[in-house]
């Protein structure tokens, strides 16, 4: 049974930084791209960033480009989201997810970690 567990959320001031982590367990998700999504209260879940299995291909939502960086350490079964220059509109529950290859269908999801940004 595959599990994804996020951590690293919390309360930060506007302009601050946080680093989210997502650890996978159960089996190695070889060949899986990893993505980060977020959902703010009253809003739909939205894509934040994605990283291929090899780490060579990344994509970001326009709203986070230049501020967020996704990375992974396959040896540790961990994917990261470094978030800098945080804004109040970045506040949300952040989820990591796994999609096989180039598929846009995410097969596995974590439970989420809360990020709160104070103004």
Task: Summarize this entry quickly.
The protein has no helices and 11 strands.
Describe the structure.
The protein has 119 residues and is mainly β. Helices cover 0% and strands 55% of the residues. The chain has strands at residues 3-7, 10-13, 18-25, 32-39, 46-51, 58-60, 68-73, 78-83, 92-100, 106-109, 113-118. Strands 2, 4, 5, 6, 9, 10 and 11 form a seven-stranded mixed sheet that branches. Strands 1-3-8-7 form a four-stranded antiparallel sheet, with no helix packed on it. Strand 9 (92-100) and strand 10 form a beta hairpin. The radius of gyration is 13 Å and the shape is globular. The N and C termini lie far apart (40 Å).
Shape: globular
Q: What fraction of the residues are assigned to beta strands by DSSP?
A: over 45%
Which spans have pLDDT < 50 for at least 5 consecutive residues?
A: none
| Ends apart, CA distance between termini | 40 Å
> Helix proportion of residues, in percent?
under 10%
SSE series? EEEEEEEEEEE
- Helix segment tally: 0
The pLDDT mean sits at 96
What class would the helix/strand composition place it in?
mainly beta
Largest sheet: 7 strands, mixed
DSSP strand count = 11
- Whole-angstrom Rg: 13 Å
């Amino acid at each position: 049974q595959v599990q994804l567990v996020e951590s690293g959320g919390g309360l930060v001031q506007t302009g601050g930084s946080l680093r989210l982590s997502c650890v996978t367990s159960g089996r190695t998700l070889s060949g899986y791209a990893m993505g980060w999504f977020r959902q703010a209260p009253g809003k739909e879940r939205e894509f934040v960033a994605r990283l291929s299995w090899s780490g060579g291909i990344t994509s970001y939502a326009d709203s986070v480009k230049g501020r967020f960086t996704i990375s992974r350490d396959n040896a540790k079964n961990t994917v990261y989201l470094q978030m800098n220059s945080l804004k109040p509109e970045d506040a949300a529950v952040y989820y990591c997810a796994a999609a096989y290859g180039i598929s846009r269908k995410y097969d596995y999801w974590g439970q989420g970690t809360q990020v709160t940004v104070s103004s």
